[in-house]
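#struct-help
A.M.: can someone run this one for me? Single chain, 321 residues.
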Amino acid sequence: MLRALLSGLGWRKGIWGCAFSSWQPHQPPAGLSATEVVSHWTVVFEEKGIPEARESSEYIVAHVLGAKTFQSLRPALRTQPLTPWQLQCIQELSSYRLQRMPVQYILGEWDFQGLNLKMAPPVFIPRPETEELVEWVLEEVTQGPRVVGAEGGPLILEVGCGSGAISLSLLSRLPQSRVTAVDKGEAAICLTHENAQRLRLQDRIQIVPFDVTLVESWAHLLPWGPVDLVVSNPPYVFHRDMENLAPEILRYEDPVALDGGEEGMDIITHILALAPQLLKDSGSIFLEVDPRHPELVGSWLQSQPDLPLNLVAVRRDFRGR
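D.P.: on it. Structure tokens below:
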């Protein structure tokens, strides 16, 4: 059965290395502290119309100083003068932000569900809304009827794994679970492999290049048998809405991971149509979708009377979408 739909598209190789030059635009004067440099770049970003100007500046400065967040820096580090090398590195990274590169790509890493994941363009950047999807899956697994695979944990299939954020989060929170993660993008497959190894979760995940839209056998994707859960944050943006996405998305992220076709349903319907071949009888599907999709999915399911799926629940994300 179709268990859940979660709506929301919020924010969707790190640039580390400093190219030195005698002068660059917006370069702050020497001798500034971290706090002063944050203020300097915040003003520059605001003047150039960069979204989340202060947050961007704080993340970049903190990264150069070896911290994840500016707030986690020791007070002494915030007030002491930065070295010329540090200032130059901040200048270099900030120049990418001025080109509207997402902070996640600039830093080359981002936290998701408490896991530090490598980020690299053009692989889709996981959003906070997708963390809510993971929490909902975990809630259903832990509070609902127990789903058990051959080795005691749920068997999970993720369609469109991207960076591996969803799969690896579920593996880390469900110690006996196993995951098959598929994506048609080579960059996504490579990044999921790398993140699985970074987190030492590679023994419980099978990562497979696969295009869900092609008519192929799914049998080789199910080495442990039918799965308990199918989870996906599929491409669901309506094609006509693509041009309205932020420059951070349009310039850097893979449009294939975003564009869901005329009504944003192209990949969603492929997943639903394949579900009977993938799921156990009591299995569930969790999808992140556009706020307009629950009604469209319901109508589509009514047009497929032979498909043994039911729309069970819909949740809004923290943005109310």
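A.M.: thanks! Residues 128-143 form the longest helix (16 residues).
D.P.: also worth noting: The first strand starts at residue 2 and ends at 7.
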